[in-house]
Amino acid sequence: MVSGPSSDPPRRKLWRINAFQGRAFEGPHLRTLAPVLEAAADAAQPSQPAAPRDLRMQNTVRLLSTLALKGAVLSLAARYQAEAGAGIDADFAPTVPLLGRLRAGETADVVILTREGLDGLRAEGAVVAESCVDLARSFVGLAVKAGAHHPDIATEPAFRAALLAARSVAYSGLGASGIFFAQLIERMGIAAEINARASIVRQGFTAERLLTGEADLAVQQISELKLVAGIEVVGPVPLHLQNPAVFSAGRMAASKNPVHADRLLKFLASPEVAPALRESGLEP
């Protein structure tokens, strides 16, 4: 999100999965999830002796994922822990910042990125080629604040008119959807008009700008739009104008937990999780 200068160093907003309740928590600390999960497990089963800390960490998979898979991962976390006996320590961010963090030396067991982003890491040897799997396709869509008028976007002329009529359009400055949208409005010849009053979000959910009144329309992956309460998805950008993004996953070559990493990849790519992917706005 665009903000003014600050004297304080920026802090990433990290999301932690509570696998017992299927919710996300925010916090400034990178490694907080595993102790929380284990403390909850100990409280739920007081008769069981506590496991050593190193064993607990072995039973936690560190996941870095694009925002598009956040809803699906959150909804599946408790089920995975029950079936595999391992928790998920997840952090969600747009693909471009994630790639930057990984190339700067941040580590994980599993990464979920656009197929192109994962292919780049695989070519660099950072991801094990044999572990890579495609998880889902995702379409870019449009949203409005709940109760607001749904513009007609079924055809290219109608979509164009809706964008030009909006007081402001919110779109991502770094995510795959934002890169696509910036290129699309350029091809349509309306980039100058849209960008003159656009609300460009550096990180996070564009639909939040609908709630603050900073934008009338929000553009993002449909699975990301659906994560914001108080908005309504109008529909996808006309399909002939877009190629769906494919999100893929793989195990990092430097993974400290390859067994559980491979188990998580197999779980996420299984037919059994397809309904959860669809519910989140993705196409398995």
How are the SSEs ordered, and which strands pair?
Blueprint: E1 14-18, E2 23-27, H1 33-44, H2 53-58, E3 60-66, H3 70-84, E4 87-93, H4 95-103, E5 110-114, H5 115-123, E6 133-138, E7 140-145, H6 156-165, E8 169-172, H7 176-187, H8 191-195, E9 199-201, H9 208-211, E10 217-221, H10 222-225, E11 231-236, E12 245-251, H11 258-268, H12 274-279
Parallel strand pairs: 3-4, 3-5, 8-9, 8-10
Antiparallel strand pairs: 1-2, 5-12, 6-12, 7-10, 7-11
Account of the 3D structure:
- By secondary structure, the protein is of the alpha/beta class.
- It has two domains: 158 residues, D-Maltodextrin-Binding Protein, domain 2, CATH 3.40.190.10; 102 residues, D-Maltodextrin-Binding Protein, domain 2 (3-Layer(aba) Sandwich), CATH 3.40.190.
- Helix content is 36%, strand content 23%.
- The chain contains twelve helices and twelve strands.
- Strands 4-3-5-12-6 form a five-stranded mixed sheet. Strands 9-8-10-7-11 form a five-stranded mixed sheet. Strands 1-2 form a two-stranded antiparallel ribbon.
- A hairpin with a 4-residue loop joins strand 1 and strand 2.
- The longest helix is centred in the N-terminal third of the chain and has 15 residues.
- The radius of gyration is 20 Å and the shape is elongated.
